[in-house]
Specification:
single chain; 228 residues; alpha+beta; Glutathione S-transferase Yfyf (Class Pi), Chain A, domain 2; 53% helix; pyruvate; isomerase activity
Length: 228
């Protein structure tokens, strides 16, 4: 731990089920960084209070408050934590590793995240998919295509950026778990999206998911309401 970080207390504002909150919780748990948990309830609009909007004017989680400074956007928070707490590095130890990890992070953010979220997760969660079975199946096919680079990478190495787990894996995992969760809903099964068990068509990705589910901090960070 850096001298600067050792004098600071971290407060994490988060919501259960938010994949972006989950990313930061995984990083905190894996790096064994203590923090004060501030769980917000979206049903009570706790992310729209003047106090919270003072931390993030967009009203979104996660937000990490450290001293008097508030930081939002999940990848930025993970990068900050890795710099402030360099033990158990998530962005590599060499310039080559650093660049490769950021490449993988950006590949997922640019080519996977919005496809999963906008075309599949949101329509299923909001009930907009029921009258668009053909469109949803087309989106599911695109999702499999978008996962191709991950399957290829994980066929060569155990993690997305090589032999060690990094920020790239932590960034990707929650969104993929969210995709799997909504794809297991009865209406998604009825549409035959085929996303509920990715390991059938993507065995290397399936093996990676199993490894990631055993990582330090996974159980503690798992969305509480998903356990019900």
């Amino acid at each position: 731990m850096s001298e600067e970080a050792s004098t600071l207390d971290h407060e994490l504002f988060w919501m259960s089920g938010s994949p972006y909150s989950w990313r930061v919780q995984l990083a905190l748990g894996y790096k064994r960084i203590p923090y004060i948990s501030r769980r917000l309830d979206s049903a009570k609009h706790e992310n729209r209070t003047s106090e919270f909007l003072g931390l993030n004017p967009r009203g979104k989680v996660p937000v990490l408050k450290t001293g008097d400074a508030a930081l939002y956007e999940s990848v930025a928070i993970i990068a900050f934590l890795d710099r402030a707490h360099p033990d158990v590095p998530l962005f590599g130890q060499t310039s080559q590793q650093h660049g490769r990890i950021w490449q993988r992070v950006n590949e997922f953010e640019n080519y996977n995240r919005d496809l999963f979220d906008v075309e599949i997760v949101r329509p299923l969660l909001r009930g907009h998919a029921k009258d668009n079975h053909e469109g949803m199946r087309a989106s599911a096919a695109r999702a499999y295509d978008a996962l191709g680079w991950m399957e290829q990478a994980l066929s060569i190495a155990p993690y997305l950026a090589g032999d060690d787990m990094t920020a790239a894996d932590i960034v990707a995992l929650p969104n993929i778990q969210m995709l799997r969760r909504v794809a297991a809903r009865p209406e998604a099964i009825q549409m035959a999206l085929g996303l509920e068990d990715l390991s059938v068509r993507l065995p290397a990705l399936g093996a990676w998911l199993s490894r990631m589910e055993t990582m330090r901090g996974y159980d503690a960070a798992y969305p509480p309401h998903w356990r019900n």
